[in-house]
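dude i think i finally got it to work??
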Amino acid sequence: MHTPIQPSSESSPALPYPGAAGYDDLPQFPSRAPLPFRRTIRRHELHQIVPLAETTIYEMEQRGEFPRRFRLTARCVVWDLEEVEAWIEARKQASRTATAGRPIGPDVKLRQYRPVR
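look at this
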């Protein structure tokens, strides 16, 4: 039979065991994350999540419509995954609440001439 090792009372107070009084009062998740870092993604991973062209992402960053990249080193830029996921969620909510009959682009019937390519 395995007997759990209790920490000494000098270094830290002993935590109650499962089923003991006071165990249910402990927080399920600690108030602070054990590691103070957030997940970052590189360009390749970003393009798997957000299927937009490189120039589109850059222009949206410049206008403040997309999370900004930041440099880890002189040759490595990354995005904060949490910010990108929040941006996707906001776009999803905006798309669902938008009027269904509203056109996405300009009304082509109002053109005065057809551009020649």
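Residues 81 and 96 are 23 Å apart (CA to CA).
im so relieved honestly
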